[in-house]
Amino acid sequence: MELKGIHHVSAITANAADNLYFYTKIMGMRLVKKTVNQDAPSMYHLFYADEAGNPGTELTFFEIPRAGATRAGTNSISLTSLRVASDKALQFWQERFMKYGVEQEAILERIGRKSIRFTDAEGQRLMLVSDETNDGVAGGVPQVHDEIPEEFGIIGLGPVTLTVANGELTRHLIEEVLKFRPVATYPSGKDGQRDIVVYSTGEGGTGAELILEERTDLPTERPGRGSVHHVALRAADQEELLQWIDRLTEMNVSHSGFIDRFYFRSVYIKDPNGLTIELATDGPGFDTDEPFETLGESLALPPFLESRREEIERRLTPLDSGQ
């Protein structure tokens, strides 16, 4: 029983229309599911991914129109990575970001891989990472895009950084409970702060890493637009997920219990520093209720919300998802 890697990252936006434009038109990802937050169906939940919405490629957003600005700090999921196939792809993206006025940093090498840090218009902290030297979890297939050659497209999620005030508490969860293994360390670059630790699971590589940063010099993050709500990790199937739930219970880790999200099955954990971590199955998948060819074009609702469709649609601002 071993987690396979990153499943998805779910973040917060205050403007679904602008968010849709950025991630489909500028980043070239596919909107594979236009749905709602199942726990609060008055808000959109948008899923961007590779062409098929494969697990490990999904960056999702809850729309909270009144969300305030994020005050960055500790006890947060502080950096989300997106994978591209090569170092050459980073050069393409550097030029594309300049064309569209996207705030970016220089191409740097981190953990033996070249990368670019950048932000969207709401300050979402992102990084493109090159798979040039990756020998772990394979990436997906980029969505076809008129302006982005296929060899330069986004192929999935890369390492996700957790920044916490008490590293030992989260280390115990990552290593002892979730069974990630430490594979590298590198200096924080901040005076008096511990080295940053890279953890890996499954086949390893860019699609299977969590990065743990301990910071005692920061306030606690105040989340808002541009912050991350949770990171989800890949369990192979429902049978394995149930085994993980048993393990969490046996190790006295508080959890949500089994939840059926229709497109996948889940369990949620609160780590001791307050981060939300989900374990999610690879299937059934996003083509459960829509054909592959028209994924994301219509508002999709899980069966238990279908009877409320008229009410839900009335509360949502229409969103043109033509891609």
Automatic annotation (TrEMBL):
UniProt keyword terms in alphabetical order: Dioxygenase, Oxidoreductase
GO MF annotation list: dioxygenase activity
Domain VOC: 5-131, 156-282
InterPro entries registered for this protein in UniProt: Extradiol_RC_dioxygenase, Glyas_Bleomycin-R_OHBP_Dase, Glyas_Fos-R_dOase_dom, VOC_core
Keyword Oxidoreductase: yes
One matching Pfam family: Glyoxalase
Keyword Oxidoreductase tagged: yes
Domain of life: Bacteria
Protein name in UniProt: Ring-cleaving dioxygenase
Record organism: Sporosarcina gallistercoris
Lineage: Bacteria, Bacillati, Bacillota, Bacilli, Bacillales
